[in-house]
Amino acid sequence: MTRIPEEDRNMMEQAIYLPLVLTVLNRDLVVVEKSPFKLKDPYRHLIEETMKIIQKELYEVKRYMSKNKLKVEQLNRDEAFTMYLFLYKGYEEHHSYFNPRIRNKVQELMEFYLFKRHVCGQEKTEA
Questions:
Q1: Where are the alpha helices (DSSP H) in the chain?
Q2: One Pfam family of this protein, by short name (predicted)?
Q3: Residue 126 pLDDT grade (very low, low, confident, very high; cuts 50, 70, 90)
């Protein structure tokens, strides 16, 4: 049983997932640059703008965590699981994440930032 409230735990998980999304997008940017696409700029701009938005959100997550004395550290990783240490206002908790779950969450976030974010933004302006 965790002592960490859901909102704080969600922020701590964002501190895990968002850097991973940025890592994937950075790698994809390198692939786009080396690709034989005739017009690379639209792909590059999409990835770069998405990365800027994620970086802003990651900044806010880190600011929230600092303000609320929260910290996340990766302890170890094997083929199946990654273990994280969550420090919450003086308490320590170990959380183990199934690596395919991490990958799926990163993919879900990438889809949101690359596609669904735009749809959500249109719905807000139209409503």
A1: 6-34, 41-67, 99-111, 117-126
A2: YhjD
A3: very low
